Every structure is written in C-alpha cells, then in structure tokens.
Amino acid sequence: MARVDVLNIRGEKVGDVEISDAIFMCEVKPHLIHDVIRMQRANHRQGTASTKTRKDVSGGGRKPYRQKGTGRARQGSSRSPLQVGGGTVFGPHPRDYSYTLPKKVRKSAVKSALTARHSESNMKIIDTLSLDRISTKAFYGIIKALKLTKPLFVVNGKDETVEKSARNIPYTKVLRVEGLNVYDVIRYEQLVLTLDALKKIEEVLAP
189 burial class (0-12, 13-18, 19+ CB within 10 angstroms)? Predict the structure, then answer.
C-alpha cells in the first residue's frame, strides 16, 4: 500500500496514512468513466418538454369555413396542425430519460476516477474539516492554505457549518461521502478527503 501525507486545514503535514492500491492505484478505464457520467447526466434530465396536440388546443367546434365554393383547401377544424394556433404534430411530451448501469461498472468507474486524481497528484488527505461558525472567509482561507483552485471536499457525515461556509465560493463543493460520484470527482480539479471519509470510501469500495 502507498502512503500519502496527511495535512491539517493550515496546509501543514501532521502525519501520513496508507491508501488502498485496489482503489487509488488501479487501472484507469476512461470508457467506464464516460459511460457513468452519461448515465448521471441523463438521470438529471427533467424531461418536462411538452407540446399540445390537436386534442389539447382550444377551439375546433365548427368548420373554419364552408366545404365548397371558397377556392381554398377544405378544413374541418381550427385545431388542425395546418391552421395557425392549431395542434403540433409529433411534438415532445414528458418522458423519463433515466437508466442504470450494473453496480460493478459504477464501482469500477468510481475507482478509476479516484485513481486518476491520485495519479495526477490532485488528491489531498486532511485530518479533519471543521469550523467554529459559518464563515465563507474562513473556508476560503482553508482553500488558500491547501493551495487549491477548484476543489471537491468529501466529508463523512452532515456538517451544515462547513457546507454553508463553502456554498458561496465559486468552483467549490462539499460532498458527503455517501454522495461520492464520478461526475463530481472528474468535474473538480482537486479532490480533498478527510481521514474519516477515506476510511469510509475504502470500506465501501473494498474488493
């Protein structure tokens, strides 16, 4: 197992920790990362686009004009798609875009994403992440101390003080470990794990 430095929120080394080779030093599989990100993006689609067909638009109680003698094409209803204000033909209707991939594929993709961040030296381990009060300035100071630009912080458990302190900082996100996903790991340039979160990840993704 490889050993990595453990930092505090001031960016100082306070120790080191072993990380699992099976999770942070496995083979990176870009095609699985791509497949899982596509699935995640599709599952977030609302699918609420909707149009009115001829049965949904108002009007149409009688013929717009008589059948013969006008020199125009015959029309039976103002709801016809041929009429201004008529219904739409084959328009979109609410639908579900979501689908799933096998659990092994999703698990392998998470490992690939974590390995990619570690191999690029864009993963840091910190001993703990806590604040005395909600403070955007204090949290931004942590980002500066750790020399981060676009970080994803992964913590173990709910901490509203930390989450609310980070939410107004651009390109920064605090994620609970149970919500760890491929899209966020790849989207943000740096990954920061607390020691508790690291243990939980290794417990869940253990082969």
Answer: middle
Residue 36 domain flag: no
User: Which band of pLDDT confidence, cut at 50, 70 and 90, is reported for residue 91?
Assistant: very high
Whose tokens are 């009688």? That residue is 62
Whether residues 133 and 188 share a domain: the answer is yes
pLDDT the model gives residue 62: 87
Whole-number pLDDT of residue 1: 74
Residue numbers of the domain that contains 169: 2-29+99-205
Q: Is residue 177 part of a domain?
A: yes
Q: What pairing do the DSSP bridges indicate for beta strands 173-176 and 151-155?
A: parallel
Which pLDDT tens digit goes with each residue over 20-75? 999 999 999 999 999 999 999 999 999 999 999 999 999 878 899 999 999 999 99
Can you list the pairs that 9-18 forms with residues at least 24 positions away whose Cβ atoms lie under 8 Å?
9/126, 9/128, 9/129, 9/142, 9/145, 9/146, 10/145, 11/145, 11/146, 11/147, 14/127, 15/127, 17/125, 17/195, 17/198
